[in-house]
Amino acid sequence: MGPIAISALLVIAGAFFLWTIRTRFGLLFVLKSENRFDQVGRRVGALLEFGLGQRRMIDDPLPGLMHIFIFLAFMVVALRTVTMFGLGFSKAFHFPLLGPGEALFGPYYLARDIVAVLALVGCAYFVFNRLVLKPDRVTRSWEAYFILGMIAGLMVTDLTFEATELILASPARSPALLDPWRPAASAVASLLTTMGLSAATLGALGLFCYWAHVTQIVVFGNFLPYGKHFHIITGLPNVYFKRLTPSGQLRKLDLEAEDFGVAKATDLSWKQLFDTYSCTECGRCETNCPTYVTGKPLTHKELNQTIKHHLLDLTPSLLQLAGAKDNRAKLIDGLPHLVKNNEHDGAIAEDTIWACTTCGWCETACPVLIENVPRIIDMRRYAVMAESAFPPEAARVFKGMETHGNPWGLDGTTRADWAAGLNVPLASAGEDYDYLFWVGCAGSFDDRQKKVSRALVQIFRTAGLKFAILGAEETCTGDPARRLGNEYLYQTLAQANVETLNKYAGAAAPRKRRVIAQCPHCFNTLKNEYPQLGGHFELVHHTQLLAELLHDAKITPKLSVEEQVTYHDSCYLGRHNGVFEAPREALAKIPKLKLLEMPRNRKEGFCCGAGGGRMWLEERIGQRVNQNRVNEAAATGAKIVATACPFCTTMIRDGVNETGRSEALAVFDVAELVARSLEKPA
Ligand code: SF4
Ligand code: SF4
Description:
- Helix 25 crosses helix 26.
- The chain is mainly alpha-helical.
- The longest helix has 29 residues, at 105-133.
- The protein has helices spanning 3-30, 40-52, 61-87, 105-133, 142-168, 183-194, 199-223, 231-240, 270-278, 290-293, 300-313, 315-320, 328-333, 350-355, 361-365, 373-385, 392-404, 440-445, 447-463, 479-483, 487-504, 520-529, 542-551, 581-588, 625-635, 646-658, 670-676, and strands spanning 337-339, 346-348, 435-438, 467-469, 514-517, 538-541, 564-567, 594-596, 640-643, 666-669.
- The model has no long low-confidence stretch (mean pLDDT 95).
- The chain is elongated.
- The chain contains 27 helices and ten strands.
- The chain has a four-stranded parallel sheet with strand order 4-3-5-6. Strands 8-7-9-10 form a four-stranded parallel sheet, with helices on both faces. It has a two-stranded parallel ribbon with strand order 1-2.
- It starts with a helix and ends in a 6-residue tail after the last helix.
- 52% of the residues lie in helices and 5% in strands.
- The site of one iron/sulfur cluster has 15 residues, from helix 11.
């Protein structure tokens, strides 16, 4: 085919590719380091499951399947493509065992033909999807058509080249030469023979297809780093370098080292930039994102693009940092901020970072496992701790937590007043107990949630559990402060709680005790975040405990609750901690209760709008998230929305009132419904 020409093509294309990649990857080395090279076994497992196994793609079955077709084609056809380049140097080039007549020749080319045809089906589907179906999540761009055309072109030129070779190798030049191991190439050969082309024309066609194929490959490869299809190169490594800590755990800031989060590009880690390179712009992150769905200025997809372009625009300045020593601080000083506010310009609007409820949908949906919540919180952290730039409502919350240990700023010494008359023992009283009931701020101070606390006490008593509470020794876990960016306040509160909990239920207790949390936010923080401060506790959410007690017949619901009920998944219980079934199992045990599912349930559950500290902030832009959810709940025909989180209860109840459904729809915690079905203890 011309060794000189193919060598020239490879050298020019390779040089251009290396030049592009050098800048793209060079940026990674000037950003903050982060160890994503540990736990190789788990990483390989993730690569097999989410990368090669494409597990998340089938969550949206049809496009997912079509993407898998194309992905498979890339995997299988890669060998063939290298072979094509090799043929440029020698007509006899082939990989071991893949030469004509060798052991794997037939099976490989059969696989190649099948995946090439499937890839063509996939390309046709995606063009149809963009032109006709036009799903909301898909970004309209010429790039997608260009790449789809390229992929289809690669398949067609490969099969046609092969078809001309098949015909020319056959003395009869008839369809009888069809090779059963190469059905697609043979079908193309049949088509060509019916056209009666001369040997010279077939030779020219084959040559054209050959050069079209190898040229497309080098153009394709060089184009990738410039657009969203960079994910073809970075997607699998991004999956390999995934976060291995729980999604509900935020990075602990080293405040003594003056780590106050993310202000500028240089505060991002290499992985955070790599994430943006890997975004496929598929928009899966948007479908159940409460901010996107209700019209707020934040989507995971767009934030990736914004951050990526911000850094790429700064490439010359950032690359200067690589060799800088003495003037490094000055160079960083000259960089623009990421977030725009009253004090300075920036690429990201302030409303964007405050819109997120940290519900975790986007991360659950993302096929290449891009991490969104940590970087948003890191930007909030800098805004709060370094610039005091946060929504005014947050100031009251911080103050309340600082001075009284609860976001309402109510007198902390009255924390156990909800239990008046119930004779609930305090852990400090010295009696033995098996369970430490972590009541939480809402369960202690919010009048509606106090009823849930009391219902739980009724259930614990019926089950004969030995339990105790901390009373005034308990203070806010710090979750709202942490997710609103006030890491300093979080660490102060959390440290105090870790000491207390260690004394009663952890390392310093006479024996380990299970800690019952009625709030999923407390549950998540105690379980996933306190280990960063030396607190290791055995957590159980109250709905998990209820499911256990019901399963073990420690409590037996006898009284009917003849209602249609829909269960609203809490993000911090469900998506972040995988507790989807326990609340449903508990509800299912209640006589005559009929459970109806909302369309967005379990992993796809739709946030109530309260997470990420948004419970305490005004919602000024777009539709209210809670109203969106209540509309969905009402559409099931249910008369009760069951919840498992105090924040959800508040938001859903507000949504019910705001949408004028207070007569039609009631809101109860799962515990209240279970308690209703129990005969009262003597
Ligand atoms: S962030 Fe993930 S889910 Fe969202 S568009 Fe990018 S690749 Fe798709
Ligand atoms: S965490 Fe939830 S609210 Fe925040 S961007 Fe992702 S899906 Fe949207």
